[in-house]
Design goal:
Strand order of the largest sheet: 5-9-8-6-10
Shape: globular
Radius of gyration: 17 Å
CATH class: Alpha Beta
Helix content: 25-40%
Length: 245
């Protein structure tokens, strides 16, 4: 049997933040700042984590952590590992994605029920032959309820996670369309895999920022529907943080 013990492990440190059991990871700095503005739960601690910021929100018995930004599966794994070492047990990931399904448009929201692995990080946490990563079913259900509470409609289904944003070729898009993927992004399969390995519960919310379903790039970052979807997604994430933290 191979010896799979890691030589270097995440370190809790002498003065770890009191994160609480729930963390929201915002892939983009703009969503991290938006959630900071939207929440009425005060920030009681803020510090750097690698190239990201973490801030702990606490009031009465409620406590949750907001972390971000991040880009790509390896860095996402580092953030999840560090949060776990500090005691985080549940993670909600909020990010942006590109639509590859013809029925998904910029400004839509997706709650993934699986993530197809096309990145190199997940294979270090599970069998390298594993091609699909899964979230926690209960957290997915709670995420859907939180979105509904804020009046957000959403798609349910699989997404595709890639390492290479500039190598989303026509051939690859067609291949993942045939497998039923709704959209493509760069972190979520690794977030699911690492969280599963570390026995954490995890779910994700993706806001569709652009479309490549017809093999042409159509950005939607500046559309009113995208802005509205971001706010609803961030409000739902904060509801999860306050409810589970």
């Amino acid at each position: 049997m191979p010896d799979r013990r890691a030589i270097v492990n995440p370190v809790k440190g002498k003065n770890p933040p009191k994160t609480g059991p729930m963390a929201i990871i915002a892939a983009t700095e703009s969503d991290r700042r938006l959630m900071t503005r939207l929440t009425d739960t005060p920030v009681v601690e803020r510090r750097k984590l690698y190239m990201s910021t973490i801030q702990v929100h606490a009031e009465d018995q409620r406590r949750f952590t907001l972390a971000g930004p991040l880009v790509g599966a390896p860095y996402a794994a580092m953030i999840v590992e560090s949060l776990r070492s500090w005691g985080v047990e549940k993670i909600l990931f909020v990010g942006w994605c590109g639509a590859i399904s013809h029925r998904v448009k910029a400004g839509d929201i997706i709650v993934p029920d699986s993530a197809m692995v096309d990145e190199g990080t997940s294979g270090h946490y599970c069998d390298p032959s594993c091609r699909v990563a899964l979230p926690a079913r209960l957290m997915v259900h709670q995420t859907r309820l939180a979105l509904q509470h804020h009046g957000a409609s959403f798609h349910k289904g699989p997404i595709w996670t890639t390492d290479a944003i500039f190598r989303e070729t026509v051939e690859k898009v067609k291949s993942f369309q045939a497998k039923g993927a709704l959209a493509v992004e760069m972190e979520l399969s690794a977030v699911f895999t690492v969280a599963g390995f570390r026995e954490m519960e995890v779910a994700g919310i993706l806001i569709v920022s652009d479309e490549i379903s017809d093999y042409q790039w159509r950005p939607g970052f500046k559309t009113p529907t995208f802005k509205t979807a971001r706010e609803k997604a961030c409000r739902a994430a904060l509801t999860m943080g306050r409810g589970l933290g």
